[in-house]
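Practice problem: Methylenetetrahydrofolate reductase
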Amino acid sequence: MKVTDYFEKANGQTLISFEVLPPIKGGGIKSIFKTLDPLMEFKPPFIDVTYHREEYVYKANKNGYYEKTSIRKRPGTVGICTAIMHRYGVEAVPHLLCGGFTKEETEDVLIDLNFLSIKNVLALRGDARKFESSFSPTPGGHHYAIDLVRQIRNMNKGKYLDDNIEHGQKTNFCIGVAGYPEKHFEAPNMTTDLELTFDKIKAGGEYIVTQMFFDNKAYFNYLELCKKIGIHVPIVPGIKPLTKIYQLTSIPRFFHVNIPEELSKEVLKVKDDRKKVKEVGIEWCIHQSKELKAAGVPCIHYYTMGDSKTIRRIAEAVF
Ligand code: FAD
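Answer key — structure tokens:
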């Protein structure tokens, strides 16, 4: 079933969903099941699986010199989606990126997904890789998420890349896109970012999943701004708890989001006690989740980062 159908069917009730990352180097489906098994009792109708583009690392060669090498650290998104659907009977949502794919390769992936009865995808651009100053599209690939949305939408209409093929089956993918309550870091301002997000919706995006945030005001304000410019699709808050002291700086650095003063003060008060830092982060996330649920959001999407114990505690307190 489509993710958006679940929102409709829920009739105002807040659903729960999770995001998992493929294990490093295909390291066994068991780690995915170990993360998800304890979370399935909360009945998520869908689970997202991230996609990870190849990365550059420096590796010593035979002569002891360091060379820039391309590695694929977390492959297996499509296989994991299929395994999730088989084991739990829920929808799996693969993340699709512009970066790393030609349009033809994207078409192949979409055809595979269609054969596998995967009905939902989250269409994303992807980030610049380490050692790149900004995102560079793969030659023959898409530059922005909107271009990927258009390709998927075209396939939903039976339009494939090669116009000579007349029997391209119509697919029926439900397309999700990303949104940024605190603005995408490359956008010159919030208005431009919102207009470009609206363009993704007009091109075929049917729901938005947000970047993580730690201050619900940012999300509620984002909802208002979206409504004002005419975005009326479901906007799913994506959140995760802060659980380690170093995340006070790493989260803003990697995800370009703010840590509210109140949270950072509470964390710093107990900074020498790892358990207490985690407690503060979990309590904060529970509070955030309860407020979001009380506000009637369509779904709360948890970024699990493989830590099912923590996410389970939060879900138990909220759902
Ligand atoms: P876009 O919508 O293409 O926007 C990128 C930037 O370009 C924005 O600043 C936007 O304002 C601007 N822009 C858009 N269109 C145009 C245009 N036509 N002209 C000029 N500027 C334009 N990354 C991964 O690698 N793997 C994942 O699995 C993954 N999952 C994610 C899930 C969620 C819910 C979110 C929020 C992010 C995820 N990301 C993932 C990170 C994402 O790839 C990055 O945030 C990336 O920098 C932007 O992706 P996007 O799809 O929002 O890009």
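Discussion: The mean pLDDT is 95. Students who identified this feature from the tokens alone can consider the problem solved.
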